[in-house]
Design a protein that fits this description.
Number of strands: 7
Distance between the termini: 59 Å
Radius of gyration: 20 Å
Helix content: 10-25%
Largest sheet: 7 strands, antiparallel
Number of helices: 4
Number of domains: 1
Structural class: alpha+beta
Order of helices and strands: HHEEEEHHEEE
Strand order of the largest sheet: 1-2-3-4-7-6-5
Strand content: 25-35%
């Protein structure tokens, strides 16, 4: 067994790298309520394509994963994600997609009285979420009412 001993310069480089990793968080999915700074990494992670369409009131960042699921992230002109929608054969990772609002989704799911996989529709002042489907055909949407830009109708999030 060989033991590697680092030189002073190598130790310094390792310490700087460790400090940078602690100071700068790794970007994750551009979650609901977050910003769009990580969309390109999301695209690579999903091994999917990305299309962006914009308007005066909001932009839509649509990713199609290799699995066939499409995710649309609706963002304000300054890049804040106010709504998400999905459809496809596989349910997306809602923990990533909903971000800080995932707990609200969990609470809504607990309050639901129908079967485990049935439709879910919940509206609070913090989050509106609608999800349904079955294997090979899932769909849903979620948005934060306080973040929806003026003049945008919730029905546009689809």
């Amino acid at each position: 067994m060989r033991i590697r001993i680092f030189s002073g310069l190598e130790r310094l480089c390792l310490l700087i790298l460790a400090a940078l990793l602690l100071v700068f968080p790794r970007p994750g999915l551009a979650a609901l309520g977050g910003d769009l700074s990580s969309v390109k990494k999301d695209q690579a992670r999903m091994k999917g394509s990305l299309q962006v369409s914009g308007g005066d009131r909001y932009s839509v960042h649509e990713m199609k994963a290799a699995t066939g699921t499409t995710i649309r992230e609706y963002a304000t002109p300054d890049g804040k994600v106010f709504g998400v929608a999905w459809e496809g054969p596989w349910r997306p990772d809602l923990r990533q997609l909903l971000g800080a609002y995932f707990g609200d989704y969990q609470q809504a799911a607990k309050r639901k009285r129908t079967g485990h996989n049935g439709p879910l529709s919940s509206a609070t002042s913090r989050l509106v979420i609608e999800t349904s489907g079955h294997p090979r055909a899932f769909y849903g949407r979620a948005f934060v009412p306080d973040l929806v830009p003026a003049g945008v109708e919730p029905a546009e999030i689809q």
